[in-house]
Amino acid sequence: MNSFRTRLTLIMIAMIALSVSTAGLFMAKTFKENHIDALEDNMVREMQIISARMEWKAGELSSLYDHYTNEAKELKRYTGARVTFIRNDGVVLGDSDWDPSQMDNHLDRAEVKEALEIGTGRAIRESDTANQNMIYVAIPVEIIPDQTPNIIRLAMSLNEVDQSIRNLTMVLVLGLLALFLVAAIISYRIALSMTLPLEQITKVAKRIKNMDYRARVKVTKQDEIGELGNAINAMADSLQVQMTRIQQNENQLESVLDNMINGIVMIDKNGKIVLMNRRAEEVLGFSARELVGRHFAEAKQQYELSQMIQEGLKNKEHLREEITFYFPEERLLELNLVPIHPDGNEFSGVLLVLQDVSAIRRLERMRSEFVANVSHELKTPITAVKGFAETLLGGAVNDEETARSFLQIIYDESDRLNRLIGDILELSKIESRRVPLSFSPVEVDSFISKSVKLMESEASRKNIELSMNIEQGLYVEADEDRLRQIVMNLLSNGINYTPDGGRVSVKVEGVGDDHIRISISDSGIGIPKKDLPRIFERFYRVDKARSRSSGGTGLGLSIVKHLVELHKGTISVTSSLGVGSTFIIELPVLQ
Ligand code: ADP
Questions:
Q1: What domains sit in the chain, N to C, each tagged with a CATH number?
Q2: pTM exceeding the 0.70 threshold for the entire prediction
Q3: For a designed S-S bond to 263, which of 245, 279, 431, 571 qualifies (C-beta 3.0 to 4.6 A apart)?
Q4: Where are the beta strands (DSSP E) in 65-182?
């Protein structure tokens, strides 16, 4: 653009320079000619005056020299020009500047010849005597009629003329320079006014190219360039609107991707990772910064995953697999690899969707294990009932004593079955939270006393001493029936797993301002260390035979744990074999 402006300026200046210098040259030439013409005319007039006043003498040549030389010198004072008198035969009679006797015949001088031929003679040439350009003008003076006339000649140095020409040229050159300068400035301004809007438009276009969509052209004139500016502005407007829309879409997409529960990885058809959301970073244990832009094989990924991606890229079809990952933590991931065909036909890569199914699978496993356990637990008493009933039917019914003991067993087993089913129903009710808790303030002291009283007959049957140590004035917000279930269950376990003559005690104390701690201890058989972490699991029993003989279902502690958790409390156990166990519950005072 700049060079365009420079070019335009230079062309305009060159044209102005050409015309001005041509005019200058022409002027100089005309001036010189006019000047010389005027000078010559002047000289002719002077000579005519001289000839009119002149007294021509005749006589001996040597006597004439002085007269004419003096005359010439006198006249030179008035005219300022060299004056020469020439006789009609060419002999110089007198000269204001030179000795006439020394001068040669002047008949062959151009001005003299011309004067004799046409009346006035002019010549410009270098003087023989003085080395300078001279202008010579001569006229004939008729002295005796019909005789060849004498000649008067004036000569002036052209130095003066040249000097004034030089002065004029100087003035001309200075003028031209000034003109040049003015012309250059004007041309530059004209070029500027033409190119400046274009430069501005170019600048704006470049900014738009560099994604600065706020750039606008300042349109001042409604000419063609102004219209171009308007068009660029309209383009920038629409680009800005579109870019904002794209930006918004991008942000939305990003927030959707970042907040998805599933991991998403996009891989282009060359195997380069293009996109990776936050969940994928968590699940795979790599940051998007590390992986995006790199080939999937460069990421040190599980072999099966790399295989799967490779296959997906090759076969371009939907693949589904479940793979266990051990890094960054153990997880079972369901992987869905979906081919991407953005415009319906051309394959552009694959989308990998990662879903952590560890929890789902764990739950499924637990459910099926539970069903198996329940079936097994139910089968045992039913088998017993069926077996004894068969034996009775087979004839044992006739032996009254045997029949009675068998019937007792059948009764006990069905009772156990009843309890078992009751516990299972209870547990499933609690787990599914079908029955909401109804919280109310419970006065701890009287509540525990009542619960202990309910267990007294069972304890005394085994000759077990039941004791309490309860801090006064404690209240807790709880579902009273559920809380009773918790305490009775633990007391009942304590009594069950303590040999005759042992002790079971309850202690309640406040912990800080907002919690109470209930500890139920016994002096019973204790629980082996290895079983401690598992006793809260459903159907888990340390000693199956013993538990069964004591009427346990193996569900009691699981129910307790669930109920404690529903109260936002915690339960823990400490135990040593043969010494006893302590179950500690901590509950928040307020729910
Ligand atoms: P159960 O109906 O068999 O008692 P629980 O869920 O109540 O089932 O208890 C699970 C197992 O924990 C019991 O089988 C028993 O082996 C052990 N256990 C529970 N309480 C005590 C305790 N106070 N002393 C010793 N062992 C206990």
A1: 2-164 (3.30.450.20), 260-356 (3.30.450.20), 361-431 (1.10.287.130), 440-588 (3.30.565.10)
A2: no
A3: 279
A4: 82-86, 92-95, 121-126, 133-141, 150-157
